[in-house]
Amino acid sequence: QVQLVESGGGLVQAGGSLRLSCAASGRTFSSATMGWFRQAPGREREFVAAIPWSGGGTFYADSVKGRFTISRDNGKNTVYLQMNSLKPEDTAVYYCAADNKYGTWWLRTAEGYNYWGQGTQVTVSS
Question: Which of 7, 79, 75 is nearest to 36 (CA)?
Answer without folding.
Answer: 79
